[in-house]
Amino acid sequence: MSESASSERYEECRTTADWLLSSTKVRPTVGIVCGSGMGGLAKLLKDPQVFKYSDIPNFPQSTVHGHAGQLVFGTLNGKPCVCMQGRFHLYEGYTVQKITLPMRVFKLMGVKTVFLTNAAGGLNQDYKVGDVMIIKDHINMPGFAGINPLFGPNDERFGVRFPCMSDAYDRELRQLARDVASELGYSDFLQEGVYCVLAGPSFETIAECRMLRNLGADAVGMSTVHEVITARHAGMRCFAMSLISNMSVMSYDSQEKANHEEVLETGRLRAKDLEKLVSTIVGRLEHNSSS
Ligand SMILES: O=P(O)(O)O[C@H]1O[C@H](CO)[C@@H](O)[C@H]1O
Q1: Whom does it interact with, and what assembly results (predicted)?
Q2: Per residue in 78-132, pLDDT tens?
Q3: Is 158 annotated as a binding residue?
Q4: Ligand 1 centroid to residue 211 C-alpha, Å
Q5: Prediction ipTM score
Q6: Mean pLDDT score across all residues of the chain
Q7: Taking Cα atoms as reference points, which of 216, 273, 214, 213 lies closest to residue 243?
Q8: Residue 132, CB half-sphere, CA atoms under 13 Å: how many?
Q9: For the domain with range 3-285, which CATH number is right: 3.10.180.10, 3.30.70.980, 3.40.50.1580, 3.30.540.10?
């Protein structure tokens, strides 16, 4: 990508942010990204103002069942928020830069902290379906093949050329989440671990699941990491959680088959708990962080 193409990308994000800022009075400091089947989070926002992705300049469209495709502004526990009810994935055919455009738009709108949720397969055999895993680190598999949202000329208006990723998942926010989960009586299904992203859309083979587990991954999915890299590059704090929607198939004797319907069904079963967890954490943000 040339310098001028990089500048065009900045202008593209600026146009989208300006259009949104002129269309709503909400000035969000918190950005939320809803994972598969977790769009109910957006319904918690008070005085919601909803924009279909198809009406927002430069926004991609959601093509995956369980991702409604709208941006919702409002307040959550008193905090001004913007919530993506539906995210974009590499396998939908968009470039990695396009699927992460909303993070840069968040930044240009004034967002300081990003909350991301996703559905993921459990690789760690101590996990069970319905567990919620706080993400403490990630493995960026597409990154090993050169698919990284920061590829190409760096635009200093967003961030530095070589951003640090050892602090990608904010330590204070993870502690806050553990505290809140304990108060809510959620400790029995709370985990903390490493999320590995693959490009999808095919689910993993048994050999791939075994390899990922051996590499140190606790859960596997097809999202979140590109958004986190882009958000951290732009200096926003990140907190991410995986709902273990299915257990990865690790044995050749197993009859289990990963499928998107099970992913959405687990989302429905755990929806209320996830919503309570996220809204309580967001409500406490000012006591525990600068945002
Ligand atoms: O990561 P989210 O958006 O929750 O979606 C997850 O669910 C889908 C597979 O069922 C994949 O897109 C995977 O990444």
Answers
A1: Homotrimer.
A2: 999 999 999 999 999 999 999 999 999 999 999 999 999 999 999 999 999 999 9
A3: no
A4: 20
A5: 0.99
A6: 93
A7: 273
A8: 29
A9: 3.40.50.1580
